[in-house]
Design brief:
Number of domains: 2
Bound molecules: heme C
Strand order of the largest sheet: 1-3-2
CATH topology of the largest domain: Cytochrome Bc1 Complex, Chain D, domain 2
Oligomer: single chain
Number of strands: 3
CATH class of the largest domain: Mainly Alpha
Shape: elongated
CATH superfamily of the largest domain: Cytochrome c-like domain
Strand content: 5-15%
Structural class: alpha+beta
Distance between the termini: 40 Å
Length: 159
């Protein structure tokens, strides 16, 4: 918690909003938008002495929460960016799905992916080497992982 005068607080918030906006509306000629990411955000607290205090908080999005689970539980096979090229991938037959392959992934429904992740590949007639993650991930964590997986697709996923 830092105490800073009101004037500077305004400057900081204005700068922060400026950054947030430029992230949200990238130049139209910029090539690829990176997957959703969280940035610094300020929570402003007015004390009863009428002083403003600003505290930096990080707002997590579903995609950033999902990415954290993905890197922990999925990337060893599917690769950090869903290329199907994680360190274990070469030992697997069939090879892990490429989550960045929009032509394949975009045709799968959220319900299908949810079931594969929660109950395992065998539950949808796929390889049992795609294990069931329902013991490690809660349902809402699986939904967050799906948001992250969707963000990897090329061509992009359109709900
Ligand atoms: C031990 C390696 C391994 C790990 C770890 C793993 N997977 Fe898989 N996954 C596979 C393999 C192999 C396939 C391909 C199965 C097939 O084609 O029969 C697959 C397929 C999939 C598919 C495609 C299903 C379909 O219908 O084609 C999805 C989606 C998926 N995995 C998501 C995940 C998610 C999310 C995680 C992390 C929670 C994860 N996987 C962790 C090996 C893994």
């Amino acid at each position: 918690m830092t105490r800073i005068p009101n004037f500077w607080l305004g400057v900081v918030i204005a700068a922060c909003l400026g950054l947030a906006c430029s992230d949200r509306f990238p130049d139209s000629d910029s090539a690829a938008m990176p997957p959703a990411a969280s940035g610094p955000t300020f929570k402003v607290i007015l004390t009863n002495q009428g002083e403003a205090e600003a505290e930096e908080v990080v707002i997590e999005t579903a995609a950033t929460r999902g990415q954290r689970s993905y890197l922990t539980y999925c990337a060893s096979c599917h690769g950090d960016n869903g290329g199907g090229d994680g360190p274990l991938s070469s030992t697997l037959d069939p090879t892990p799905a490429r989550h960045n392959d929009g032509a394949y992934m975009n045709a799968l429904s959220d319900d299908h992916i949810f079931q594969v992740v929660k109950l395992g590949g065998a539950s949808v007639g796929k390889s049992p080497t795609m294990a069931a993650w329902g013991g490690s991930l809660q349902d809402d964590q699986i939904r967050d992982v799906i948001v992250f997986v969707r963000s990897l697709a090329d061509p992009p996923y359109q709900p």
